[in-house]
Backbone:
């Protein structure tokens, strides 16, 4: 599905849906009941420019807007049936609870993939993989500075002493990836680590947040993570997320056009970077 959307829209861009009512344009400003309307208009304005959408569940749950998220998922299915939806939930819990989280992501919301913290190990990830055709992106080397605190530590107990994020990449590329359902989250703010993860996980899709508001370098991201085929696709896909820079490109009545403009520029920058040699 990801490959098809990438081809159809000529894009590696994921638009992140992080609705924050205080940042909405004047007509919706401060109104949590307008979360669906705002996000649906962003989806309509960008659906032909993206390879995926990524709603972040906290922005809905914080406003008791889970019902609006359900409606938004249905809307995305209707207007962009070819575009995969990654539910950014960053779940991670013991198996029995993980079964409930998996049901929430894939049955309640109908997401195509979900983000997970691998911190609790294999049995916390396995329940998601029982859903055939669905994917899970494991946090590996996240975009925030605090990601260093644990993810960059070396594992003295593992031969060759890889760092924790390298070990996660190896597990996801190898023994944990029973049916090819896993991908990894790696921050655009750390291109050297994207390159390292790509070495360790050559075929996995990488979800890469951090361009736009967090200042990650779009060109460096593509150089580090994209490994091209002649047909323009990557051996392991990259999905480059931008949320706030697109959503809040304008606080005026022109917010949809402004969001479209930024999404188009970002998509074009990413596509052009495929041709730039290191
Ligand atoms: O390492 C990570 C993992 C997830 N995120 C999420 O991506 C978006 C980024 O939003 P921007 O506005 O483009 O900065 C947001 O939903 C995060 O929760 C991340 O940033 N880094």
Residues:
């Amino acid at each position: 599905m990801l490959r098809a959307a990438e081809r159809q829209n000529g894009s590696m861009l994921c638009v992140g849906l992080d609705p924050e009512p205080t940042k909405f344009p004047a007509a919706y400003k401060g109104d949590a009941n307008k979360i669906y309307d705002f996000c649906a208009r962003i989806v309509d304005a960008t659906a032909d420019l993206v390879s995926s959408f990524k709603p972040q569940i906290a922005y809905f749950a914080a406003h008791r807007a889970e019902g609006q998220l359900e409606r938004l998922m249905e809307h995305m299915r209707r207007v962009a049936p070819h575009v995969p939806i990654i539910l950014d939930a960053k779940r991670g819990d013991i198996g029995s609870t993980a079964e409930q989280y998996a049901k929430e992501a894939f049955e309640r919301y109908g997401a195509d993939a979900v983000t997970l913290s691998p911190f609790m190990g294999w049995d916390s990830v396995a329940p998601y993989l029982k859903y055939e055709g669905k994917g899970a992106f494991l946090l590996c080397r996240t975009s925030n500075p605090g990601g260093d605190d644990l993810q960059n530590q070396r594992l003295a107990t593992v031969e060759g002493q890889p760092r924790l994020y390298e070990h996660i990449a190896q597990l996801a590329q190898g023994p944990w990836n029973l049916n090819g359902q896993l991908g990894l989250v790696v921050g655009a703010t750390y291109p050297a680590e994207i390159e390292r993860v790509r070495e360790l996980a050559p075929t996995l899709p990488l979800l890469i947040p951090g361009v736009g508001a967090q200042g990650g370098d779009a060109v460096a991201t593509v150089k580090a993570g994209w490994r091209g085929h002649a047909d323009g696709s990557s051996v392991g896909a990259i999905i480059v997320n931008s949320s706030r820079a697109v959503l809040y490109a304008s606080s005026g009545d022109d917010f949809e056009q402004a969001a479209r403009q930024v999404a188009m520029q970002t998509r074009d920058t990413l596509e052009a970077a495929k041709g730039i040699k290191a």
In short: The chain has one domain: 2-273. The pocket of LLZGTKA7 is lined by residues 16, 18, 56, 88, 142-143, 185, 187, 209-210, 212-214, 241-244 (CB under 6 Å). The chain has twelve helices and eight strands. Strands lie at 13-17, 52-55, 86-91, 113-116, 135-141, 182-186, 206-209, 238-242.
